[in-house]
């Protein structure tokens, strides 16, 4: 089913297509061994500054709308946090647009004898809006949220992503107490590309079948 939000954000599907961010073939996703017939490289948005700026604006508008509801659907937050390194462009753009300070979890390294984990200024007990470009299983988001809680005493309640691959991450995160907000779903994007005759029917069917199978596996 296509939501009103998805319909309004189909410009993003076209923008990603235009920069060559959507590819079809045989891809291993992230740290998993799963093979996907479709891959979306949202990092390529940095090659289209206008689209990146628009994406940040849409993400901010979505958060503000959800916060302004009679029963707010997003908690107040004092920081935004990115997940390095591929997903840092979106929280950076969001931070610039919203004027909310940004931090990010840095891979462990040695610096003057001390291990640095969180880059940027923050105060313990603050609430953080976690932002990533794309979510597949939700495992990386869970790790980041737990790390921030355990090591920096920062609270994550809401997670904002530009693209949800719709493979069960929303359900997993909800079960763990996190609220996932996405701007566009992968199925909706594929429907748009198929309707515009930008992809072949075989590519479309293989991708939709894959998404459905993965969601069933993860959500039962």
Describe this structure in words.
This protein is of the alpha/beta class and 220 residues long. The chain has a single domain, classed as Rossmann fold, CATH 3.40.50.2020. It is built from eight helices and eight strands. Strands 5-4-3-6-7-8 form a six-stranded mixed beta sheet, sandwiched between helices. Strands 1-2 form a two-stranded antiparallel sheet. α3 crosses α4 (89-98) and α7 runs antiparallel to α8. It is globular. The model is unreliable at 1-6 (pLDDT under 50).
Summary keywords:
220 residues, Rossmann fold, 8 helices, alpha/beta, disordered N terminus, two-stranded antiparallel ribbon
Which stretches are low in confidence, meaning pLDDT under 50 for 5 or more residues running? Answer: 1-6
CATH topology: Rossmann fold
Strand content: 25-35%
Strand count: 8
The order of strands across the largest sheet is 5-4-3-6-7-8
Q: What's the overall average pLDDT, rounded?
A: 90
What is the CATH level 1 assignment? Alpha Beta
User: CATH architecture, please?
Assistant: 3-Layer(aba) Sandwich
The helix count comes to 8
Global outline: globular
Q: How many structural domains does the protein architecture include? A: 1
Radius of gyration: 17 Å
Alpha carbon gap, first and last residue: 20 Å
Helical residue percent? 40-55%
